[in-house]
Amino acid sequence: MELASKYNPSDVEGKWYQYWLDNKLFSSKPDGREPYTIVIPPPNVTGVLHMGHMLNNTIQDILIRRARMQGKNALWVPGTDHASIATEAKVVKKLAAEGIKKHDLTREQFLEHAWAWTHEHGGIILKQLRRLGASCDWDRTAFTMDDVRSESVTRVFVDLYRKGYIYRDLRMVNWDPKALTALSTEEVIYKEEKSHLFHLKYYVEGLTTLDNEQQLLDEGNTIHRDDRGYYAVVATTRPETIMGDTAMCINPKDPKNQWLKGRKVIVPLVGRVIPVIEDRYVDIEFGTGCLKVTPAHDVNDYMLGKTHNLETIDIFNADATISDESPLYVGMDRMDCRRQIAKDLEAAGLMERVEDYTNKVGYSERNPDTAIEPRLSLQWFLRMQHFAEIALRPVMEGEMHFYPQKYVNTYKNWLENIQDWCISRQLWWGHRIPAFFYPVIATVTAADAKEALKLAREKSFNRDLKASDLRRADDGDTWTFDMEEFVVAPSLDEALPLARQQSGRPDMQAADLRQDEDALDTWFSSWLWPVSLFDGIRQPGNAEISYYYPTSDLVTGPDIIFFWVARMIMAGEEYMHTFPFKNVYFTGIVRDKLGRKMSKSLGNSPDPIDLIDRFGADGVRMGMMLSAPAGNDILFDEALCEQGRNFNNKIWNAFRLVKGWDVADTPQPEAAQQATQWFAAKLRIAAEELADDFAKYRLSEALMTVYRLFWDDFCSWYLEMVKPAYADGKPLPMDRATYDATLAFFDTLLKMLHPFMPFITEELWQALYDRQPGESIMHAQLNVEPATDADRDRVAAFDEAAQIIAAVRNTRTQRNIPPRQALTLNIVGGDAAKELPFAQAIAKMANLDAIETVATKAPASASFLVGTTEYAVPLGALIDVDAERAKLQAELQRLEAFLQGIAKKLQNERFVSNAPAAVVEMERKKQADAEQKIAAIREAIAAL
RNA sequence: GUCGGCAUAGCUCAGCUGGUUAGAGUAUCACCUUGACAUGGUGGGGGUCCUUGGUUCGAGUCCAAGUGUCGACACCA
Description:
Low-confidence stretches: none
Strand content: 15-25%
Number of helices: 29
Structural class: alpha/beta
Shape: elongated
Mean pLDDT: 91
Number of strands: 35
């Protein structure tokens, strides 16, 4: 067989992936074997592969392939996420480019566009994963909005509603004014920002003179006054919200502001008179201690509003332009308004001063340029207390393991301070909330119109309700108005009888029901993923869910520990009564080699497919894994892919060497026999190390273990030791015993490498022996005998031999003796009857013509110590006595310093009496060895 | 602000319950091309284990404080 001297990945990768597909080698069905399951963290359906996916999916593939080769029934389930906000935003943008506004379309029309977009762009990422070698069972590819998953989501919603965990309420939510939807607290990202703190003048109403001004000043009040009168100073970063001010608040214990108690102040520009209220919430130290209260636009102000029964004026529209509730700036964008009002306040002399200020502003995770706006709105919530409790247990009790473990703390912390989950989103792309509304005429009882309106608004959650919407009944105290009530059911068909019953109107028709317009948070479907993939919601206890659940490992980023991991544990415990995965492996964030996050604007994010084209999938996989300890950020450097590619080339060339040998039925040379025995032992020990690395999820170390085993032990040592000699410019044939052993070693090595580098290992494994059609390394079993003590002894003995070889080579290098010039090795003062282990191998590797035991070495020798044995290489005329002496002197000095340290330790009585006997004994042995070495070196120097 | 992680060779990281002269990969330097591979071979150099104090016969490892750094959470008018 002719093989190119360089490995070319593109020749083999596509071929073998197709072979795996054609032979259904990724597929899994429940059977009698132990299952090993991974569910993919579903990437956004319209996403494209980035470096984070590369890392994440490489790890999953390594774990899956390893499990498969251990004889487990390995299943990796792929799929995509509908990513409601992200996808809807993309579709809206695309439509906008075509001049179509979302709200000019009906829901159905919009969804048609969204599905078209999904079908066009969807699944690209899954195709890209194939280039990486991902061994997913593609026949099972799922989508969070396919029929099974959608129905599961709906059922879960209905179930949780009936269990009383889901409720509807008017709350201050994080509003994304661009996407026009509420967000959960986890979807808000706070960024520090340079802004301004505006100090505004709120004149005190009707106060022209303060009789006891001096006394108040003496008591510590800070009183502001100008020719227009007395005023309070309020510091704010958001002057545009003053139109919504309905109070000013001071801390009752604030000595600076006692004079304002019980007064009323005038909102600047607006002219509205608002009360001064008192609440301990106000921080005395901050600013002037005067806080403007805008209940509609700040979470804390909202609380104050509730406590103090304040009016709520919502001055923003949903898109954060100024609403007609505001007396000023109607229709203006909030940011423009901030600039304008600052100017106007300045011009009106109502701005005392402006200072620079750094504060944190929340931004939408999905629209990173859009500052979120706290907004009162009616949303659906999931009560989290129960879920926090059931999700904490399996992690704290060690049923589930996190790698790295530090995330247990993060997890615990979040669960213990959990807030209810806002699950509704004002989007169309997603799972529509299965709540069905029907109109009713409601009543409230109140003595006057104002009270009635307030009660009616509370009852209907409708802040837009106006006094004219209320109808007073004849008795005077009863008011009626139109509102809606709802039922929750999986479908319209099931909703109708419920609604008839609930309303007491048996004549109600389907057309009378109106389904909630909102969709559910994307994570409300993702949290069911490990269950819904096996249809465990719709068909509890089915064969698949019973077999594959709980899954084995989850591989994901720590950034979604709350969004996703925690919630999957909740859903798993709720619906399966047990945790969804045994182990969670948190990967780090992929950064560039300077430690910066990958971003489009920095242009430091390589295209994974381009990398695969250049280095091969195996090379890139190795590049990812080389620097990826669990949980640490990985600093990605193309140089690592290069290293991966080089390793592929090394494997390839080792194969070329082995397959190039001629075989003959000749006796096995002693050196080769020693080498095979040693490598067999080394292989068994390495396999144990590898297993240990995997057991601890130290995958980059596992890779390094195999890397060194292959390159150093197999190529640099073993192959060199067994390589046939040359005669007449041609290699001699190799004996069959060594050849067979070498092929067997190669076979095992390929299997150990396969999870990391699936393509090249398949290519070579297929070529190593004759294989059956449809056979694959993927399903070959990695069975390596356990290592024995004899193996460890042999490996230790070889380490000494390797040191001797290195020392002889060093002797050559330092004296410019060519490798081809054979040398003789003397074992000085040794027992002539005792054979040096690996003598033949040493002779071959160090190019020695003889190894002799001598009583005293030749005077013109280079000498060195391995262990406590002195070795010498007679150099004859090649000797440089001065250089030799200098070398020995340096070694002597080093050893003497070392000996001194030990002697000091051993002279310390407290050490001798306190340290364990074994430790003291070890020190004594070190001392004796060092003394022996020193004596040997002294002799060597004298002999020169 | 609260809590947590980390700090070891130029770089990226191992180093377990304290006990050989602190390791690996990579980079770097020198030498080496007829014989699998220059995407290679052989050999070398390179460390005040962040600082200070403590515990101990003994500290990279344990404790405390400090410095730096990263992260989570909370508040921020």
